[in-house]
């Protein structure tokens, strides 16, 4: 199975959904999630990394409960990484046991820490002050034994350099996350000597704009620190959370490394990960979800102004926030289909795809060459499984589209509704 859904796969899936009445007249847009591709990516992760690795998929990448439940049911080594209290509850509600959840928020409150400790959820502290809070909470009789059920690690910044996208790079000399290794090595070592319940280390280099070399360098730095701590405090570090960040492929002309490629690179640079001395955790989000979904938006109007052909559709910065605000760093290939879901034929014309929101930058695709779009056609955006719907904007109070899950069978694609189209009443309740 290809990493990406091909244009033909996208069109056939949309056409099948339309034929089954799953994109009705009220559905101005629709998302279809390839559940077989999701499963394939999860299997690849399990095969690539050491046996027993906890693959805690980032909830922020795709927080749909119906998708999270499928992750929880897939395998005991598939977990969830949560960065807020609601994400934590989403993971628990989906069926992940506490030992399969990593809680990584850099701004955890006393109440959130107490909850996580009481439930035995694996925690990564962001800084020394948070460790002090945990020490106070663990001194209480009610949760004094919580460390036996979960685990507590410290997030460090490996300081291996920023990637190509500054806003998603977190391992430069400065980062809002974690404790810098080069500046605070002595303090880090002292923290492990002070807190006997501190048994893990965590780092993350960045997302999408980071090279394989940078990711491996970050893990190597983390591993060297773990080895130093264990030389002083034998077998203290038991869990190494190496984060996520593996880029996903958004253009066929720019293929990215696979999960297997990353694991093979780590085997060469960090063979100790396969020694059995550590339990490994990952936090992939984009690499698991991104290529497993596409979105279709109906074309409402097509107009020409100042020589620019503009197709006005029903998805824009409400779903493609990063793409619209920072188009130089983020990309989605687009595909033109007709009203029945078939790929449009005809001479390519340079066009701009506009979203429905009330600001000029609401342009999810600029100057793209497609067969001339018309009213009633649709534009399909590829590779939307991660950091799209999860970043939905409430600007203009537009309704979230329906999300379908697709699996394959000998009879053709089968669909389930993962999330129904949001009603106007639900949007009103949100603001109330």
Structure description:
- With 432 residues, the chain is α/β, with parallel strands linked by helices.
- It has a domain of 255 residues: Alpha-Beta Barrel (TIM Barrel).
- Helix content is 30%, strand content 22%.
- The two termini are 45 Å apart.
- About 1% of the residues have low confidence.
- Keywords: Pyridoxal phosphate.
- GO terms for molecular function: diaminopimelate decarboxylase activity.
- Its cofactor is pyridoxal 5'-phosphate.
| Count of alpha/pi helices | 12
Q: How would you describe the shape?
A: elongated
Question: What fraction of the residues are assigned to beta strands by DSSP?
Answer: 15-25%
Within the CATH hierarchy, at the fold level, what is the topology of the domain at 35-289?
TIM Barrel
Query: Whole-number average pLDDT?
Result: 95
Oligomeric state of shown chains = single chain
Overall radius of gyration: 23 Å
CATH superfamily of the domain at 35-289: Alanine racemase
Tell me the span between the first and last alpha carbons: 45 Å
Uncertain residue ranges: 144-148
Q: Report helical residue fraction.
A: 25-40%
Keywords: Pyridoxal phosphate
GO molecular function: diaminopimelate decarboxylase activity
GO biological process, one term: lysine biosynthetic process via diaminopimelate
Cofactor: pyridoxal 5'-phosphate
């Amino acid at each position: 199975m290809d990493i990406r859904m091909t244009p033909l796969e996208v069109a056939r899936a949309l056409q099948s959904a339309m034929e089954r009445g799953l994109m009705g007249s009220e559905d101005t847009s629709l998302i279809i999630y390839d559940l077989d591709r999701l499963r394939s990516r999860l299997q690849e992760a399990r095969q690539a990394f050491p046996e027993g690795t906890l693959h805690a998929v980032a909830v922020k990448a795709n927080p749909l409960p119906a998708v999270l439940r499928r992750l929880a049911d897939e395998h005991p080594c598939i977990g969830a990484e949560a960065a807020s209290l609601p994400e934590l509850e989403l993971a628990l509600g989906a069926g992940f046991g506490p030992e399969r959840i990593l809680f990584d928020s850099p701004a955890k409150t006393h109440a959130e820490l107490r909850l996580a400790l009481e439930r035995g959820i694996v925690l990564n502290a962001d800084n020394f002050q948070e460790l002090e809070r945990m020490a106070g909470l663990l001194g209480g009789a009610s949760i004094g034994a919580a460390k036996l059920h979960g685990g507590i690690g410290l997030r460090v910044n490996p300081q291996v350099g920023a990637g190509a996208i500054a806003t998603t790079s977190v391992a430069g000399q400065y980062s809002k996350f974690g404790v810098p290794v080069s500046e605070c090595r002595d303090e880090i070592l002292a923290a492990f000597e002070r807190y006997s319940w501190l048994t893990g280390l965590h780092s993350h280099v960045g997302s999408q704009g980071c090279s394989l070399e940078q990711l491996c360098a970050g893990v190597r730095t983390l591993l060297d620190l773990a080895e130093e701590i264990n030389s002083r405090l034998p077998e203290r570090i038991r869990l190494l959370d190496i984060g996520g960040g593996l880029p996903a492929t958004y253009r066929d002309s720019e293929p990215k490394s696979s999960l297997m490629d990353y694991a093979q690179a780590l085997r060469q640079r960090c063979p100790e990960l396969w020694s059995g001395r550590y339990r490994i955790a990952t936090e992939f989000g984009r690499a698991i979800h991104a290529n497993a979904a596409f979105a279709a938006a109906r074309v409402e109007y097509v107009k020409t102004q100042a020589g620019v052909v503009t197709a006005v559709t029903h998805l824009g910065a409400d779903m493609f926030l990063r793409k619209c605000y920072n188009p130089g760093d983020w990309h989605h290939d687009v595909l033109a289909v007709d009203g029945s879901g078939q790929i449009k034929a005809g001479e390519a014309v340079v066009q701009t795809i506009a979203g429905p929101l009330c600001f000029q930058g609401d342009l999810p695709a600029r100057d793209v060459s497609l067969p001339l779009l018309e009213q009633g056609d649709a534009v399909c955006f590829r590779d939307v499984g991660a950091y799209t719907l999860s970043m939905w904007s409430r600007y203009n109070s537009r309704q979230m589209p329906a999300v379908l899950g697709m699996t394959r069978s000998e009879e053709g694609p089968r669909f389930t509704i993962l999330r129904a189209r949001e009603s106007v009443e639900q949007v009103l309740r949100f603001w109330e």
